[in-house]
Design a protein that fits this description.
This protein is an all-alpha fold and about 200 residues long. It has a domain at about 45-95. The chain is about 50% helix and about 0% strand. The protein contains 10 helices and no strands. The chain has helices spanning about 45-55, 60-70, 75-85, 90-95, 100-110, 120-130, 135-140, 145-155, 160-170, 175-180. Helix 2 (about 60-70) packs parallel to helix 4 (about 90-95) and helix 6 (about 120-130) packs parallel to helix 8. The longest helix is centred in the first third of the chain and has 11 residues, at about 60-70. The chain is flat, with a radius of gyration of 31 Å. The relative contact order is 0.06.
Length: about 200
Amino acid sequence: MATNPNRVPAGVPTGGRFAPLAHPRPTISLDAEPAAPAEDPMVFSAEEAAEWKRLGFSRPQAQVWRTLTAPAGMISAGEAGSWSRSFRVLEAVRWRSAGFAEAEASRWAGAGFTPEPRGPASAAAWSKALGPNPKQAREWAKLGFEPSEAARWRDAGFGTGTAMHWANDAYGPAAAARAVAEGKMTPAEDNPDDGWG
């Protein structure tokens, strides 16, 4: 009878990988409730399909709208109908992802905040800094101010024209406000016809 020359005595660790320390206990419980499945954007109830069709969407169009907008929250047929009057689906996705409702996105887009670089992400930054005023934000942006910088000037009591005047003279908002309060300098009147706005 032939013997196997590769045999190793019992208990000798050879031929494999061994952990130097014990592994931690598993953290997964088999007793936990399974997570609810995510809503499938490709599946429509009869009522949903009828609503999409009533609004003029084909099934593939409805699937595209629902699939692409799903990360920002599943869109209804009515919302898609509203968005589609002003935006293509990918534009709507960007605006919704930036936190805008359709009417608000339309105001910002109408003020020139589309396409990039002054698109949805820029509009969101300006809205956070100056509030929901796209025309005011556009005025500040056209003069080269960043959202946070424009907010500091506005909070110091300056409009676009006077802020530009002081900024061109190398003043920051706080220094310009101190100079005005001390009567050392008087900035030009802030009006839309002063050549700055």
